[in-house]
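To close the section, here is one more complete example, presented without commentary so you can practise reading it yourself. The ligand is nicotinamide-adenine-dinucleotide.
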Amino acid sequence: MKVMVTGGAGFIGSNLVDRLLTEGHQVVVVDNLSTGRRENLNPDATFYQQDIRDETLEVIFAKEGIEAIFHLAAQMDVRKSVADPVYDARVNILGTINILQSGMKHGLKKFVYASTGGAVYGEPRFMPVTEDHPINPDCQYGISKHTVEHYLYVYNRLQGLNWTALRYPNVFGPRQNPHGEAGVVAIFIQLLSGGKQCTIFGDGSKTRDYVYIDDVVQANITALDRGDNACYNLGWGTPVSDFTIFDTVRRVLGPDDEPRYEDVRAGEIFHICLDAGKIREQLGWVPTVSLEDGVARTIEWYRRTGGVGR
Ligand code: NAD
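Output:
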């Protein structure tokens, strides 16, 4: 099948592109390289250095005849969304509408969306969080990511587009960029490998649900022709603390290191983990790579490649 991956030069998108090519699909990547990296691009994919907000995006759809899209290009930094909500909304909402409008004019059939379980529910009322938990984003990024789910619903109702929204947990693995604000596994690996001290924001007890990249890629592959018109959480349903992440990386890279603690940053929730029972029951997806294994694989990749340069 001919598919487009927006954000295909980024962490998750580039891993997905590699897998799609292995599965025999023809892949078109659209990425403006704002946080993505040319080194991540698979030479077997057709690459357009293009902003998803640009009106000329339609030319690509007209030329390439895209049947399905995996939409991962986004402003995905919580703090940036708090500091500059207009930019966040322009990329995450208006950019996505531009894709939808362009794609629908040229025969797009399926839209797989990288949503976020970590930012749409807000501070959970119960855990693990199911898809029917109230939506109460605590930051502008959560609002913009969730807004797109409404648009997908409407494009299905009015124009018959099939969609699947995957609400990701915290994803980690090779190619995650440690130079931004997110991606604590990558950040800790980078710092401890360089003999530098890690900072934990809060007292180390904040929790998240961590899923290894290959499992998230597998969920996307599953959603290509199944799970139409539904939202699915991805996750283990297990809360993992910031300190546990630090300690898991430290055990391999720096057994004597201690973190420094600083104030929690605005827009961050304290606890979340996601119930992925719906996707397990309906599509058979389950996470397979444990935290320890995933961290070990990421460290191995880091040692082999030197990680993500600046
Ligand atoms: P990333 O920053 O590595 O990838 C995003 C990609 O989108 C980059 O290659 C960037 O250059 C590109 N991009 C950004 N703005 C663009 C624009 N205006 N036009 C074209 N390309 C643009 O981030 P990631 O971690 O791979 O995240 C991918 C997706 O997964 C995002 O939609 C994010 O919201 C979602 N997500 C990620 C996580 C996580 O833990 N990493 C968690 C929940 C949701």
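Once you have examined the tokens, check your reading against these statements. The longest strand covers residues 110-116. The mean pLDDT is 96.
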